[in-house]
Amino acid sequence: MGGHECVEEGLALGQRAGLADERSGPLDLSEVSPELQAAVAASPARQQTQMSEVTVGGKDLPAVIIGSVVEVPNAGPYDLYFIYPMGQEVATMGLISNSFAIAGLTLTVLVGAVAWVVTRQVVAPVRRASGVAQRLSAGKLNERMPSRGEDDLALLATSFNGMADSLQAQIRQLEGLSAVQQRFVSDVSHELRTPLTTIRMAVDLIHESRTHFDPTVARSAELLAGELDRFEALLADLLEISRFDAGAAALDVEPVDLRGTLARVVEATRPLAERRGSVVSLHLPSEPAEAEVDERRVERILRNLVVNAIEHGEGRPVDVHVGVGEDAVAVVVVDHGVGLRPGEAANVFTRFWRADPARARTTGGTGLGLSISLEDARLHNGWLQAWGERGVGSRFRLTLPQRAGTALHGSPLPLSPTEDT
Q: What is the C-alpha to C-alpha distance for residues 235 and 196, in angstroms, rounded to an integer?
């Protein structure tokens, strides 16, 4: 019926007689559940429906089974069951599922391809901009981004190129000013040496004869000699700075035990410490603190650090600690004076910088000592660092590699009181 398998049962559950069991198609009464047969028998006036599974051609298919009671002339009531296997519906749903799967896969591939193309179009210019920025930061000031079109990326490239042009112009201007400054310092320093030598000879002669002068004139001769000493120290520092700027500074390294170097420095600064009322204490290790260094430059660094600690220690003790590590040696100079304000530790090595601009010029030297010390430390691949706290004091740490030319990975002594080595 209607192309569906059906079963016609004339004697349902053995309760009816007169007709033999009949069927059409491969399905029979065994596919009808006892529950449905009982429901038909219980309500002969109503049509009963049930969803079930049937086996057709070796395949299990869902089916709709409809059961009812019909009156057959001359035979009486007759149970009739229609079984509709849903093979075509299952095939249709399978086709739809496959179509959706293929469409989903195709859509995923298309979306992925579109995303890849869009990402490539967006990311590639950003990567080019990153590469150009890295080359600019490496000093290649002529690098620029290609700018084509009128979209946002083209606007970004144009803005980036404008920024690069501005930076290049400013950097070149600063380089020119720096070169002029360095040349001026170098030329003036060298030109002053000849007249300064003559002035020194005259001042020494006047200073030696000051006992024969009027007391006022004698005092003036002493002041003149003192100020000339300061001027010569400033000139020597300027000449040393000009050598660093010109890249002409070189090291003459040899194995040196820094314990002996520090002992000489402390002895040389003892008169200054006595005038300031400070006591300089050396804390030396029992093993040699040996490193391959230029002893003249390292001694200059240590002398600057000790003198700086004495001058700013306000008469309090100054402690000098020496530490030896696996591949480095370190010296920490500690004073208990005025200390440093927050942020000043990064400025103490700046040329001519002074923590207190109003301080009398008789205190603090030329303002170049720590700058020269930093350059000397860098020549050794070393570190020169500062720490300070207002009212607590200051600490300066010099760390040098034991082998010349090697890099530092740490220091055997802490910089601040709370820092681990």
A: 10
Which residue in this structure is represented by tokens 């399905």?
27
Q: Please report how many Cα atoms fall inside a 13 Å half-sphere around the Cα of residue 47, on the Cβ side.
A: 7
pLDDT of res. 23: 66
| pLDDT for residue 354 | 65
Q: Is the pLDDT score of 16 beyond 60?
A: no
Distance of CA 378 to the CA centre of its chain: 24
Q: Which of 197, 219, 246 is the last residue of a domain?
A: 246
Q: Which domain holds residue 292?
A: 254-401
Token pair 């002029």: residue: 180
Collapsed DSSP state (helix, strand, coil) of residue 282: strand
DSSP, collapsed to helix, strand or coil, labels residue 277 as: coil
Joined tokens for residue 169: 């112009």
CA-wise closest residue to 225 among 257, 251, 247, 202: 202
Same domain? For 279 and 378 the reply is yes
Indicate the burial class of 338 (C-beta count within 10 angstroms; 0-12, 13-18, 19 or more). Answer: middle
Euclidean distance between CA atoms 231 and 220, whole angstroms:
16
| Average pLDDT of span 284-304 | 91
Whole-angstrom distance, CA of residue 73 vs CA of residue 80:
15
Give the C-alpha distances (Å, rounded to integers) separating 122 from 130, 280, 316, 320: 13, 65, 65, 59
DSSP 321: E
Provide CB contacts within 8 A for 52, sequence distance 6+: 31, 33, 62, 63, 65
- Cβ(288)–Cβ(322) under 8 Å? no
pLDDT digits (tens, 9 = 90+) for 215-238: 888 888 888 888 888 787 777 777
The percentage of the chain sitting over the pLDDT mark of 70, rounded to a whole number, equals 88
| Structural domain ending residue among the three candidates 54, 85, 116 | 85
Q: Is 119 within a domain?
A: no
Greatest Cα pair distance in the chain = 169
Taking residues 26-34, report their average pLDDT. Answer: 76
* Cβ pair 314, 280 in contact under 8 A: no
Residues 6+ apart with CB under 8 A from 55: 61
Q: What is the per-residue pLDDT for 330?
A: 94
Same domain, 264 and 206: no
Specify the pLDDT at position 193: 75
Q: Which residue has the higher pLDDT, 24 or 421?
A: 24
